[in-house]
Write a structure and sequence with these properties.
With 210 residues, this protein is of the alpha/beta class. The protein has one domain: Aldolase class I (TIM Barrel). Helix content is 30%, strand content 24%. Strands 3-1-2-4-5-6-7-8-9 form a nine-stranded mixed sheet. The radius of gyration is 17 Å and the shape is globular. Its cofactor is S-adenosyl-L-methionine; Mg(2+); [4Fe-4S] cluster. It is an enzyme of class 4 (lyase). This is 7-carboxy-7-deazaguanine synthase. Keywords: 4Fe-4S, Iron, Iron-sulfur, Lyase, Magnesium, Metal-binding, Queuosine biosynthesis, S-adenosyl-L-methionine.
């Protein structure tokens, strides 16, 4: 297939720049502790300085892969599929989620919300970033709001974002991994004073699993 044809399929979402795919335990948020198959899509221009998967940013370094191959691989492992990145909404998620749902699989996404929402989702984890804020629609659709806390100013940002989500959205504060020792006590104190929030930890890192 020539390059122009591949690029056209990527633009349609019929191929995606696949960084990695793996079966593991969901480590964060509402579904922590459950088995899931992760599909990590390349491409992100949000640019968080503390991002732990910066190798995902450049989509050109990850091979365009057909959604048929991706969904077939996923179906062999789990009925819960988590699409992450990078920023997966950089791409049209309609074809991939339709393919997954045609196989009876549940579709979850982890996103900054910085791009228009595409795809059909059973669960949306919204994790807003200051450098490129979510677009309006996803606040209404999000099932959980996961705010990363790097320093004390992030509590104010978290409250600003929580004011925009729907009333059923579950609110999480999660320490940035390199700042856990400093920020966990701050988060615990904050949640005790503001109990509508819950603590989220990257439990997969404590368990030493991918």
């Amino acid at each position: 297939m020539i390059k122009e044809e591949v690029l056209a399929l990527v633009d349609k979402g019929e191929m995606l720049p696949l960084m990695e795919e793996f079966y593991t335990i969901q480590g964060e948020g509402y579904h922590k502790g459950t088995a899931a198959y992760f599909i990590r899509v390349g491409g992100c221009d949000v640019g968080c300085h503390w991002c732990d998967v910066k190798e995902s940013w450049n989509a050109d370094t990850h091979p365009p892969t057909s959604i048929e191959q991706i969904s077939n691989n996923a179906a062999a492992y789990s009925d819960t599929i988590v699409i992450t990145g990078g920023e997966p909404l950089t791409w049209n998620m309609d074809p991939l989620t339709q393919s997954l749902r045609d196989k009876g699989l549940k579709t979850h996404i982890e996103t900054s919300g910085a791009y228009e929402l595409s795809g059909v989702w059973d669960w949306i984890c919204l994790s807003p970033k200051k450098l490129k804020l979510p677009l309006p629609r996803i606040y209404r659709e999000a099932n959980e709001l996961k705010m990363i806390v790097y320093n004390k100013s992030d509590f104010k940002f978290a409250e600003e974002q929580a004011a925009k989500v729907n009333e059923d959205c579950i609110l999480y504060l999660q320490p940035e991994w390199s700042r856990c020792d400093k920020m966990i006590p701050e988060i615990v104190e904050y949640v005790m004073k503001n109990p509508r929030w819950k603590v989220s930890l990257q439990t997969h890192k404590y368990l030493n699993i991918p």
